[in-house]
Amino acid sequence: MTTVGFLLVPGLHLLDLAGPAQVFSTARDLGHDYALAYVSEQAEVPTAQGLPVHADPELPALAPTDLLVVPGWRSPTLRGTGQLEQRTLDWVAAHHRAGGTVASVCSGADVLGRAGLLDGRRCTTHHALQDELARRYRRATVVRDVLYVVDGRVVTSAGIASGIDLALHLIAVRHGPAAAAQIAREMVVYARRNGDEQQSSAMLRHRGHLSDAVHRIQDLIDQRYAERLLLADLAGEGGVSERTLTRQFSRATGLTPLGYQQALRLERAEHLIGHGSTTQAAARAVGFEDARMLRRLRAR
């Protein structure tokens, strides 16, 4: 069981909290082992939108596998807002020191800064707060105009709705991109956006349709893209003929099932090559018998 703990600061923005909470709650509904916890220095926390939320005033013990998230609060400036006691900041720092991951949404990055977690790291926050964050934490590198930044076990995101993108990224890292795509679909978020990498995903670029039958076949291909998948087997899974599957799939995505699988393989191979893998090793990792097909796809 992985606990996702949300540290609630008075004046917090509801969507900063609700977006990531919905992602992990949906992950739990889909069979992933998550428990959500809400903690604060006070039992009732006022929000920027006027709806108070309840939290546990006792700071729990977190395991290294647990995730701690700090949603943002109403903050035209960071200075003088988001006040927390030193014991709470020490608790945040101790979780990271013990091997845990700490994440923030919007102005929540300021809590990470006060806990000493931004020193020597890349980070981001809401565009209106980037200059101030850079001034307050001069040993940090504030990355502008991105949705989220991952630096080791410190993950920071931009404003408000970007917390959903951050949470889906963490799901993809822990459980694979197919799990993130399934959760995005359940939440009717058809385009999971990447952080400071390419703003397009081969998988989700072709998910903006409403055909449940095609989504089910895509789910299967997403999970087994490195395997040899026969059109007849895919058609059998969909309960249609091969010709009908190809027609429906092409109408919904603009690709054949094989073309979609190759797009997934190519994107994954490009990622591996970009991180130091040889072309031959990348080709084998994504399911090609040798590098010739990968080279042809890359050349296109």
TrEMBL record:
What SUPFAM superfamilies does the entry give? Class I glutamine amidotransferase-like (SSF52317), Homeodomain-like (SSF46689)
Q: Which InterPro entries match?
A: Class_I_gatase-like, DJ-1/PfpI, Homeodomain-like_sf, HTH_AraC, INH-QAR
The entry's protein name is: Transcriptional regulator, AraC family with amidase-like domain
**Gene3D superfamilies, per database record:** 3.40.50.880, Homeodomain-like
Source organism, top-level taxon: Bacteria
Q: Where is the HTH araC/xylS-type domain?
A: 215-300
Query: Has UniProt tagged this entry with the keyword Zinc-finger?
Result: no
| Transcription regulation is among the record's keywords | yes
Species the sequence originates in = Asanoa ishikariensis
Task: Return the PANTHER family for the record.
Answer: ARAC-FAMILY TRANSCRIPTIONAL REGULATOR (PTHR43130), HTH-TYPE TRANSCRIPTIONAL REGULATOR RV1931C (PTHR43130:SF3)
Q: What does the record give as the organism's lineage?
A: Bacteria, Bacillati, Actinomycetota, Actinomycetes, Micromonosporales
Molecular function via GO = DNA-binding transcription factor activity; sequence-specific DNA binding
Q: Which residues cross the membrane?
A: none
Keywords, comma-separated and alphabetical: Transcription, Transcription regulation
> What Pfam families does this protein map onto?
DJ-1_PfpI (PF01965), HTH_18 (PF12833)
